[in-house]
Amino acid sequence: MLLIHCPWCGPRDEIEFKYGGEAHITRPTEPDALSDTEWADYLFMRTNAKGLHRERWVHSAGCRRWFNVARDTVTNEIFASYKMGEKPPVEGGS
Ligand SMILES: [Zn+2]
């Protein structure tokens, strides 16, 4: 079981959260200018990192806010939790 630190509520059990996929994916500003391949890359292609990975989580059984987590996908060690829009506090990885 993971112990995830919600930036607003503090540390809570993993069962209170839902995983939201890779973090820091930016929607293209001009989607009509993209080719079908570029649009498909934006929609479906994600990093399958082994090691440090930045991902979105929502505290669904708590404050219901979204935030980012920097986690090692091999060891499940969580290095940091940070609010949306904040710069990742851990360098490297995806
Ligand atoms: Zn919370």
Describe the structure.
The chain is mostly beta strands and 94 residues long. The chain has a single domain (3-83), classed as Folate-binding fold (2-Layer Sandwich). Helices cover 10% and strands 35% of the residues. It has one helix at residues 36-44; strands at residues 3-6, 10-13, 18-22, 52-58, 66-72, 78-83. The longest helix has 9 residues, at 36-44. It is globular, with a radius of gyration of 15 Å. The site of zinc ion has 7 residues, from loops.
How are the secondary structure elements laid out?
Elements: E1 3-6, E2 10-13, E3 18-22, H1 36-44, E4 52-58, E5 66-72, E6 78-83
Antiparallel strand pairs: 1-2, 3-4, 4-5, 5-6
The structure holds zinc ion.
Zinc ion binds next to loops.
Largest sheet: 4 strands, antiparallel
Give the low-confidence spans. none
Number of helices: 1
Percent range for helical residues? under 10%
Radius of gyration from the alpha-carbon trace, in angstroms? 15 Å
What is the number of E strands?
Answer: 6
CATH-defined topology? Folate-binding fold
Principal-axis shape: globular
N- to C-terminal distance: 23 Å
Secondary structure class reads mainly beta
* Percent in strands: 35-45%
Q: What name goes with the CATH superfamily?
A: Folate-binding superfamily
Small molecules bound: zinc ion
Q: What CATH architecture do you see?
A: 2-Layer Sandwich
Order of helices and strands: EEEHEEE
How many domains? The number is: 1
Strand order of the largest sheet: 3-4-5-6
